[in-house]
Amino acid sequence: MTTAVAPLDVARLREEFPLLGTTAHGRPLVYLDSAATSQKPRSVIRRITRFYERENANIHRGVYALSADATAEYDRVRARVARFLGATPEEIVFTRGTTESINLVAQSWGRGFLRAGDEIVVTAMEHHSNLVPWQLVAEQTGAVLRIAPVTDAGELDLDGFAALLTARTRLVAAVHLSNALGTINPIRRITELAHAAGAVMLVDGAQSAPHLAVDVAALGCDFFACSGHKLFGPTGIGVLYGRRELLERMPPWQGGGDMIASVEYQRSTWAPVPQKFEAGTPHIAGVVGLGAALDFVESIGLDAVAAHEHELLGYATERVAEVPGLRVVGTAPMKAAVLSFVMEGAHPHDVGTILDREGVAVRAGHHCCQPLLRRLGLPATARASFAAYNTRDEVDALVAGLLQVRKVFGG
Amino acid sequence: MTGLSELYQSVILDHNRAPRNYRAMEHPTGSAEGYNPLCGDQVRVFVRVEDAVVRDVSFQGNGCAISRASASLMTAAVKGKPVAEAERLFAGFHALLTGGPATDAELGKLAVLGGVREFPTRVKCATIAWHALRRAMSNENETNKE
């Protein structure tokens, strides 16, 4: 981090998160699983409560003030999200989350435009949510799925990736920040290569949106998917950014209310984008909560968050080296927020159980990246992941817990 | 440390480090895989059943200490026993882990896994090999998604 940003007041920040003040097994909770979902600040919780207590109505329906106000708030948050990602409001589709955003592109763009023999390229480090939707659409259309290799350190092999791009490549889908390893992929470069091959570029931003300042225009990508719940917002709300001309050419994905212009018994016409992709009553309170979450994020500043997490990851990487027999998995130079590791003689599940009893919450398993872990020759890892509210003391608690694991399993 | 020392008893740690009957079997009468898609734990159990008696049993796989130790203890417990007795042991063992009504099965060393009861997220680790064993004994060669 070369840019000078004011350091976070983490102690004050933590007070905004009621759950961080709770205990686990009689010890202060040390929450190191923000890559799975972030905790929620009071402002988000209060905003959702206030919506249900004072503002709840369906949108785009009523002539009465309550509905008009709910609609206005829903649209305001859409514009808010657009500003957050560097897009225009027409390019922001609300979904249930990253997974649904990617499925939307796979089923609408993919089924609409992929033909037998066309190729989809994804990286070997994708989350199942950026792999399985492409398997499904490949099966439906006869398209072929190609997997770009990763190195043992968990970096994308850029030459290997470039070698897969041909005139048949129609779409490239890549994760921005790997949830299993923390690797930050060079999305701008990947996008340039994809575009040079004439392919459309989709970015899985589930992990990057909470940790890196994202500007889709600067990245150059055609689609960007992210989730509210990893961004201090509620579960069940996500975002798909799609370049406007692509969204306009794409057929609807789901049919129903709100996505139509006019309906007859045998045929219908569609609402303009983005409503064309939002059939049925959406998660209005989720959208409202997401708006509050973005206000929260911008009030602390993603640059300050990134600097804090970078420092914390460096400290954690240094400290866990003191634990005998521990090996960090994912050692890319460009890395953020995630510390995945294995311990000799102690399975990640046992590590997770012992840490849990020490009050430390980490994830153990394949992190929804089974093919990646198989590629790295591992059945599972333990993963500590960090957010703006984590502290050096919590890293120390993690290390104390890991030494406890060592004690139980010897070595 | 509530329950941890009971969970990771020395018998369990020993069976994890040096699992008994940890090998593939040349000519099993049945084999089955237990797989937990949530965590990726995987175990394959092999049996040779003759005259309704488990003449030989072995396993291989990847998993946590609880699943390895449980598989190892299981093979030691059922080897040489009638299939019906193995089934009774499973029922008793399952009851021990889930707090179900006690059975009259003589659990012997299997009882050391009783501490798992305090860790509901780990019960599946302790039973994955048993489910595979039951399939292998009934000669259903299919993956058991437990």
Structure write-up:
The complex is a heterodimer of chains A (411) and B (146). By secondary structure, chain A is an alpha/beta fold. Chain A has 2 domains: 10-31 and 301-409, Aspartate Aminotransferase, domain 1; 45-298, Type I PLP-dependent aspartate aminotransferase-like (Major domain) (Aspartate Aminotransferase, domain 2, 3-Layer(aba) Sandwich), CATH 3.40.640. Chain A has 14 helices and 17 strands. In chain A, the strands form 5 sheets. Chain A has a 7-stranded mixed sheet, with helices on both faces. In chain A, strands 13-14-17-16 form a 4-stranded antiparallel sheet, with helices on one face. In chain A, strand 11 and strand 12 (268-270) form a beta hairpin. In chain A, helix 2 packs antiparallel against helix 10 (284-300) and helix 12 (348-357) crosses helix 14 (392-409). In chain B, a hairpin with a 4-residue loop joins strand 1 (30-36) and strand 2. The N and C termini of chain B lie far apart (28 Å). In chain B, strands 3-2-1-4 form a 4-stranded mixed sheet. In chain B, 39% of the residues lie in helices and 20% in strands. Chain B has one domain (4-141): Sufe protein. Chain: A (Alpha-Beta Complex), CATH 3.90.1010.10. In chain B, helix 2 packs across helix 3, helix 3 (65-78) packs parallel to helix 5 (123-137) and helix 4 runs antiparallel to helix 5 (123-137). Chain B is globular. The chains are: A alpha/beta (411), B alpha+beta (146). Chain A binds chain B through residues 25-26, 345-350, 353-354, 357, 364-366, 370, 373, 379-380, 408-410, and chain B through 1-4, 7-8, 13, 17, 38-42, 62-66, 68, 119, 121-122, 125.
